[in-house]
Design brief:
It is built from five helices and 14 strands. It has 214 residues and is of the alpha+beta class. It has a six-stranded mixed barrel with strand order 1-3-2-6-5-4.
């Protein structure tokens, strides 16, 4: 996917947003370019690509392959306010969170009224940009009540060149009994909150710029 962008001078972010564009930055060890992008175009790309797929950003004729590192969101409007893009190079491994898609209906859910309790929906890996998978599918149909899957379960689903950075013993999902399922749903409803940031932790360049502009 490709996005068009324009160079910009830091500052006047509010005025920029009123024109339908959002401030952003493209950076790595060698690049630090302030840009603006059309809000609707970015929103569409981000919904489709997420933080684990490459996006080409054309900045007035110069194309940067990037990953979305972090998105600062307006909590009330649920609109992006500032984006950090990390520029990648073909021969440099990057760390990304790859989404996990759970497929099938567990036996414990279908036959015993249990619930599939999903604890993690992504796995963090280090890999060359061209090899980043869009997602990993895990079949949960054989799980009985009490069964679980862990990060180790996704290793064979990833490219052989990938290095898994998460603890292999971390639980991804489990099938829990009906009564426990109801308790978990109640607790989740009581503690739910809106995230303010999407993506990884802010890098120094993007974080400093966003703070100085607001």
């Amino acid at each position: 996917m490709k996005l068009e962008a324009m160079k910009r001078e830091p500052g006047k972010s509010g005025q920029l947003r009123r024109t339908g564009r959002i401030p952003a930055i493209i950076y790595n060890q060698e690049v630090n370019q302030s840009i603006s992008i059309e809000m609707r175009a970015f929103d569409k790309a981000f919904r489709e690509q997420g933080t684990s797929s490459l996006i080409d950003i054309d900045v007035e004729g110069t194309v940067y392959p990037v990953l979305v590192k972090q998105v600062q969101m307006n909590k009330r409007r649920r609109e992006p306010m500032h984006v950090d893009f990390y520029a990648v190079t073909a021969d440099q491994e990057v760390e990304v969170n790859v989404p996990i898609e759970f497929v099938g209906t567990p036996v414990g859910v279908k036959e015993h009224a249990g619930l599939l309790d999903v604890q993690r929906r992504e796995v963090r890996i280090s890999i060359l940009p061209r090899l980043i998978p869009s997602e990993v599918e895990l079949d949960v149909s054989a799980l009985e009540i009490g069964d679980s899957l862990h990060v180790s379960s996704v290793v064979s689903k990833l490219p052989s060149e990938a290095t898994v950075l998460d603890d292999l013993e971390l639980a991804l999902c489990a099938v829990v009994p009906p009564r426990l399922a109801e308790a978990d749903e109640t607790e989740e409803a009581e503690t739910a909150g809106e995230p303010e940031l999407v993506g990884g932790e802010a890098e120094a360049e993007g974080e400093a710029e966003a703070a100085s502009e607001e």
